Amino acid sequence: MKHTYSLLLFFLLPFLPLIAGGHTISGKVVNNRNQPVKGASVYLDNTIDGGTTDSVGFFSFTTDETGNQTIVASEVSHATAGQPIVINGDVTGILITLKANMSRDLDAVVITAGSIDATNDKSKTVLKPLDIVTTAGSGADVVKAMQMLPGTQQTGPDNGLFVRGGDANEAAVIVDEMVVQNAFFSGAPGVATRSRFGAFQYQGVAFSSGGYSARYSQALSGILELNTTDLPDKSTINLGVNMAGAYASGVKKWKNSSLDVGGGYTNLSPFYEVVKSNFKFYKVPQGGNGNIRYAWKPNKDGILKVTLNTQHNLTGVSIPNPMRAGADTLNFLTKDQNYYSNVSYKQMFKHKYMLYTAASVSRNKTRSEFSNVFNMDNVDYRNQFRIEGKRYMNSRLNLLVGTDVQNFGQERTMEMQDSAKTIYKQDFNEVLTGGYAELEWVPVNRFAIKPGVRYEHSTLMNVDKVAPRLSMAIKTGSHSQASLAGGMFYQQASNFYLIAPFMNGYNDLDMQVATHYIANWQWSQDNRTLRLEGYYKKYDKLVLEEGAATFDPNTYRVLTPASNITLTNNGSGYAQGLELFWRDKKTIKNADYWVSYSYIDTRRRYMNYPTQATPTFIANHNLNVVGKYWIDKLKTSVNATYSFASGRPYYNPNIYNVTDHSNFQTEVTPDYHSLSLSAAYLRSFGKWFTVFYISVDNVTRQKNVFGYRYGANGEMSKIVPALYRTVFFGVNMSLSEFSKDEL
Amino acid sequence: MMKKHILIAATALIATAATAQDFRVPLEKTFLAFDTTMDMKVKVEQANKLALIAKKWDAEWSTHYYVAYSKAQLSYMEQDAKKRDAYLDEAEKEREDAVSILKKDNDETYVLAAMIANARMAVDPMNRWQKYGELFTQNLKSAQEVNPENPRMYYLQGVSKYFTPKQFGGGANAAMPYFEKANGLFAKEAGVTDIAKPHWGKDKNEYFMEQAKKNDKG
Q1: Is the whole model's pTM more than 0.90, yes or no?
Q2: A635 touches chain B (CB under 8 A)
Q3: Which band of pLDDT confidence, cut at 50, 70 and 90, is reported for residue A126?
């Protein structure tokens, strides 16, 4: 018996390591702060002998390997590390130190100066479609939603984004890298209209309030960038009716392409019916629109998009005469036809190269009748082309190089309604060419730098400009970073002047320039963002009208040869300010709120200003508190926005001193307050997904005043919005392709 | 008599040593150990083992497939958002390894890509549903083109529907047809026992069918 056992042992001996393992290897895995790392995989390289660390970082496993080996530890949040060991018996007390995986432990550094990152996802997107439609007071208008962010002025009587001291025409709206010529519907002077952009046409909206990329120019202030959606998920039909009209659209999705056709009819009668309007609309704003969009993915990394749309509108309103103060009103009729087309193609090659090219043609025709003053036919157009390439050297370095051409102009015929029936015909045609290069480089994990340069040439004025741009960011902690941005931003004289007859020629004009210096600090963690930004902006060579005998405060005036002006670049100014933004989607479940505050100090001499002054569209303090709450049980979202702006300056001829220009635009209006509420209720009727929505702007009917006009005899009239309070409701229904084919 | 026993024991040992060279045995054992526990600690251990198996049998696409699967599952169970993304980075890398061995995607790697996209979305649904929801759908569509009979594809779709709020077209009722379809296909797959050919999901699908039945009024 004994004999057999020993025989058995003898037989089994060579296999014992396979059963029990030869040697025990044990030790501990810690991070570089000497804290244990649990769940780490510790193994001998090129074998399957290994173990996992426990909660105190301890590991132990057995192996039959001997001699020189490499022991490796890896853990998901750390960089893998190895060290040599020699096994000729049990090995204990091994200590392996793992460094935290930088790329995950720290959020990637992103340059944020100038551009607002309201989301926590590391894309450029600021507000997503749903963010926009659920912002009370925005009326689902992309541009209006931007006015709830820092750096912009509250809605006034005029269209446009007034960014950090800049006039409306100093901020550009860009769709798929193409400049939009007429971002807003035409309307009567002093009656703000909507922008042409609905929230759901765009997959992302990015807003830069300064220091933007070398890709763009011709905006002294900033850029609002919209990117149209790519291929939709599935075929859908969408129908809606609201107080401003009705619309219908359909998307047909094929495997690699889609066609989107839509149309609508707008009539604001119900809108102006339910609340008392400050102006009389004898032709309520009405019109129609149509659009076609085609998208095609010829391969996995390429996409072609073609968009065509047209919008037609008619408005007749009796407005307070902007030429004079007092009780008199005049009838203003405007008929507007807008055509826009855009083709773009983007292709990635092996994740190493990106090619993007786009072309766009747009044309806008407006007939305006200022009863008893003049009739005006105006055509403006813009043709543009861009091609750019990006080379990704590696994940930390890429180079963008591109060129763009803008051809735009205007043709205008004015028939004065005086006894002479004088006719003025004016036009201009300009070609701007540009080239740009921009390098994005992340030399180390915590630092990113983006230098860029842009060259541009104006054919009309025959000038060449080189604009350097630079931005950079550095991590100041695992959730915070500081950024700097700056550069020079050129902009030609606005169309208002390019078409105006002036005594000197275009060759005497130079480009206006703004130099930006921006610093920001941002903290962002778990759906909470705090952002502080300060800036200083210097304006030079602003276009100035010289030669006029008296100051005309009417911002809707039209220059004719009779105006007898000389244009110079003698204007200048500055803007400086501090901005704060706090967004929190975490603290309260199902709630999202943000607070945005902007302080600005700015003065400039431009247009027909006799001296430097704060423009009439500037409020020194702007505050927005935006809240959204989703009530799960009721399937309802309720939203509220409170907006505040301090008073705006206005011109009072009774105190203005013509000789020394003192007291020019020094009086200020009362503060602006507005509380807006909105709610949306979601439910399905069979296969139809339905949203009912209602919104009330300026619930308390605060009688906001944007300025005053003075008449020759000292009489004064208030500049007020068309409506103090607005009420808007509607319903949207959508039917998605029934997904039976998935089964 | 005793000699005979010894011989048997020895042969058995030699046989074990020989089969240990085949990746299927440790792979199946480790995968089952991973997939049948809800204990996070054990899951991490077994996932680590799966990773070692894939290192050793580097040329087998299925070894990488299971590592990717295990990392995606760990991501769902993890609380820390950054760690969840880090797991998915690893899952994506292993999935790519599997695909490069196969030369091109098969239905299982597409299903895996859909699962990873879904897990990415789950980290931050509010900000990510748009991008990753589309990736999820796309990959399942691609899987369907390769093999319309893959039950895991319908199972994943069912689970996604099940957790989608009713007003957005989800809920137990909407999910049921997918689970039923998957169930039929799982039955067809019953004969598959080779671990190198992924065939997981039958029990899970049955569990969700039960849940969906219970909740079909809600």
Answers
A1: no
A2: yes
A3: low
